[in-house]
User: What shape does this take?
Amino acid sequence: TLGVERAAEVQRRVRLPVFGLGGITAERARACRDAGLSGVATIGALFGADALPEETRAAASAILAAWA
Assistant: This one.
């Protein structure tokens, strides 16, 4: 894992989009945005084995709001 700071360094050095992936929460999405990454991707935070539809909607809304 790179972490947000190293990923941001990579983003500054390349002309390709760099996305945060793995363990993305609303707080981490905001940190990735603030660090200049191109975006984030998440699966586990939204579609975990025990995720209920209401929890999925709330998590997705929080991540989207953090990125805005």
